[in-house]
Design brief:
Elements: E1 25-27, E2 30-31, E3 35-37, E4 44-45, E5 51-53, E6 57-60, E7 65-70, E8 95-96, E9 105-109, E10 115-124, E11 127-135, E12 144-150, E13 169-175, E14 202-208, E15 211-213, E16 216-221, E17 224-228, E18 236-244, E19 247-248, E20 252-256, E21 262-263, E22 277-278, E23 296-302, E24 324-329, E25 332-333, E26 335-341, E27 348-353, E28 361-370, E29 379-383, E30 389-390, E31 395-396, H1 397-404, E32 408-422, E33 429-443, H2 444-449, E34 459-465, E35 473-474, E36 480-485, E37 488-495, E38 498-505, E39 516-522, E40 531-537, E41 543-544, E42 552-553, E43 559-564, E44 571-582, E45 585-596, E46 601-604, H3 606-609, E47 615-624, E48 628-630, E49 637-652
Parallel strand pairs: 32-49, 42-49
Antiparallel strand pairs: 1-11, 2-11, 3-4, 3-5, 5-6, 6-8, 7-9, 9-10, 10-11, 12-13, 13-17, 14-15, 14-18, 16-17, 18-19, 18-20, 21-23, 22-23, 23-27, 24-25, 24-28, 26-27, 28-29, 30-31, 32-33, 33-35, 33-38, 34-45, 36-37, 36-39, 37-38, 39-40, 41-43, 43-46, 44-45, 44-47, 47-49, 48-49
Length: about 650
């Protein structure tokens, strides 16, 4: 068996974050949506610090807390001292965008046990700038752990498929995890003496059922550690402790499981475009070079299970670890040729043959399932010949490949929808007809990862802790956009609370039950020029026939969705989500499955619904006509669509 490692697939994030010593630390960070900030170090990361800014709210992370104080303290902010700070009352409640106005002051308690104050100095759309001061002399700060995750799968604690397997590569997120005065070291080598068990004045101990093991390091920086869990670590609930420069963290609860495979995602997100290697020449498949059905590919990751020979050192020999019972590609059961070691400590590889009956598309879902039915993380692969294609979405591999390579991708989406959903009060349902448009700018990596997209024929799942907001930057497309159709004309106007979003409540009868074409026209704004777009509303209308039986769902058993009607050639999107409170944080799981409307029935597998947390949520069935594209000065891609939507409340048991 050929053991092959492509450097790009290791996917260990080694970005250097700004570090500062604790002693009345000050800073003036600017936070874009999706930025997490440590008030103890001044570091900004993607997650795991003291607070995270979603673009619509500032939310505490881990054990941090906030108290919103208002604008009355703005004048006295420069002279605030530690004596003025509240000693209690810090909560996990978020501060909304509406409260984050210039001169608003809030107090905070950090994960490191320190307190401080911050003032909003600027608000630019969904981006905010703060001036903060942390009074670090209130207590000795040591390492603080906020998350322990599989290095590749990144499934958060609290979900049924969470766990760290013996012999796997995992990461610890937090603050003060390594000596901030020590020089950041490169990735440690597993040749010769092998990976070290102490790095940057930091060591880690794992205790499970009375057995203590010592992980080995790939790297150690103040905000993140990457290590291999020893193969002799027992299975069970245990604790992990980080000791840095003689100061130990609080013990952090972890769950050690026999296997919990995480597949490598191309952009290091744990979802979206996965890494798949051509076994003949070692090249990576991509949107412009999709995988023909019947091809055997190599995928990387970690978590198949114990492999004592490779806990610290590189060993090239193949070693099978057969913990995955199935790998589903677009719902089709694939043949696993090999699963096991890939030479480097903690690194696993899986050689799998893409089924000849797998659906084709740019984001075909891929998930592994063990013998107990527990899924891995969900990734996607481009399946086809040459550039991939998703005609239903109006996209192709050449478009994905080009745009994902750009620094930013500016996009627009316009649509018409007819929605029937539970009424907010009094029971019953409400019907809402709207026209909408949104214009946003994303990073090329965010566009390319397509972490929430799935091609028709498959399902994908996203799992996260705490609230998440929009990750794009709003684009100005003018003051209004017009739409006209068989039922008349309407004007979409901007919503100040949601920059880049335009909306119109449509009068009864505006959307014709017999379908039709609806035309949009925008005069343009400072970011987006004048444009024209059209959508075709689906006819005959789709009817969801078994929604009355889905008020409660047994997650392990999956569910069946049935419908009648739907426009010829259109597709159906089934979306389900649930939330639950886990260790003071809100765990949210969302699945999405897509099928042709002509299919009439969709079976959602138990390994999909089982990845959602047990709790209350919703279920939506939508019928879309195929996406159309439009152009406008200032955007790279424009999409238009129309759909009919049915939603119910449900409970996931």
């Amino acid at each position: 068996m050929r053991s092959l490692l492509i450097t790009t697939t290791v996917a260990i994030l080694t970005a250097a974050f700004p570090i500062a010593a604790l002693a009345n630390l000050t800073g003036t960070p600017t936070l874009a949506p999706g930025t997490s900030l440590s008030f103890d170090t001044g570091a900004t990361t993607a997650s795991g610090a003291d607070v995270i800014w979603s673009g619509t709210a500032l939310t505490p992370q881990g054990g941090a807390g906030l108290i919103e104080a208002g604008t009355a303290l703005a004048a006295s902010f420069p002279s605030l001292t530690s004596a003025f700070l509240p000693s209690t009352g810090y909560t996990a409640n978020q501060i909304s965008l509406g409260q984050m106005v210039v001169n608003n002051v809030f107090f905070y308690k950090t994960n490191g046990g320190n307190r401080g104050a911050a003032i909003v100095t600027a608000v630019n759309g969904q981006t905010i700038t703060l001036n903060f001061i942390t009074f670090g002399t209130l207590g000795q700060a040591g390492p603080v752990i906020t998350q322990v995750l599989n290095n590749y799968g990144l499934v958060p604690a609290g979900f049924s498929n969470y766990g760290i397997a013996p012999g796997s590569l995992f990461i610890v997120k937090g603050s003060g995890l390594a000596d901030p005065n020590a020089q950041a070291l490169p990735l440690q080598s597993s040749s010769g003496a092998g990976l070290p068990t102490t790095l940057n004045n930091t060591s880690v101990k794992v205790s499970v059922n009375g057995t203590i093991t010592t992980p080995a390091f790939y790297y150690a920086i103040a905000s993140q550690l990457a290590m291999v869990l020893p193969s002799n670590t027992p299975v069970g609930t245990g604790t992990l402790t980080v000791t840095t420069s003689g100061i130990s963290s609080a013990a952090f609860t972890i769950q050690v499981v026999a296997n919990a495979m995480g597949f490598d995602a191309y952009y290091g997100t744990g979802s979206g475009l996965g890494v798949a290697v051509n076994t003949a020449d070692g090249s990576l498949y991509n949107y412009n070079n999709s995988i023909p059905p019947g091809t055997t590919v190599l995928m990387f990751g970690s978590g198949l299970g114990a492999d004592a020979a490779r806990d610290t050192q590189y060993v090239p020999a193949a070693f099978s670890i057969n913990s995955l019972a199935h790998i589903y590609v677009g719902g089709a059961d694939a043949t696993i040729v090999y699963q096991g070691a890939s030479g480097f400590p903690g690194l696993n590889q899986v050689n799998v043959t893409i089924p000849v009956n797998a659906p084709k598309g740019c984001n075909v879902s891929v998930v592994g399932v063990n013998a107990a039915g527990t899924p891995t993380n969900y990734i996607t692969l481009p399946i086809g010949n040459g550039p991939c294609s998703d005609p239903a979405f109006g996209t192709s591999g050449s478009v994905f490949q080009t745009l994902s390579g750009q620094t930013t991708v500016k996009s627009g989406f316009v649509g018409i929808s007819h929605s029937i959903s539970p009424a907010p009060t009094g029971g019953g349902t409400q019907t809402t007809d709207i026209a909408f448009a949104t214009f946003q700018s994303y990073t090329g990596a965010a566009f390319g990862s397509a972490s929430s997209s799935v091609s028709p024929g498959g399902c994908t799942v996203n799992q996260s802790l705490a609230a998440t907001g929009a990750t794009g930057t709003a684009l100005d497309a003018g003051t209004s956009i017009s739409v006209n159709g068989p039922g008349g004309n309407a004007t979409l106007t901007g919503i100040p609370q949601i920059p880049g979003y335009y909306y119109a409540q449509l009068a009864s009868g505006f959307i014709s039950p017999s379908g039709g074409t609806y035309s949009f026209a925008g005069t343009g704004g400072k970011d987006v020029g004048a444009f024209n777009a059209s959508v075709v509303y689906p006819s005959p209308a789709l009817t969801w026939t078994n929604q009355g039986s889905l008020g409660a769902i047994t997650r392990a058993s999956g569910m069946q969705i049935t419908w009648n009607g739907g426009a010829p050639g259109s597709f159906v999107v089934v979306t389900g989500s649930s939330t639950a409170l886990v260790n003071g944080q809100t765990a949210t799981g969302t699945f999405q499955c897509i099928a042709p409307a002509s299919q009439i029935v969709l079976n959602v597998p138990g390994y999909v619904t089982g990845a959602l947390p047990a709790g209350s949520g919703g279920l939506t069935v939508e019928n879309y006509t195929n996406y159309q594209t439009f152009t406008a000065p200032g955007i790279d891609i424009g999409i238009s669509a129309a759909y009919i939507s049915y939603a119910i409340n449900t409970k996931y048991n």
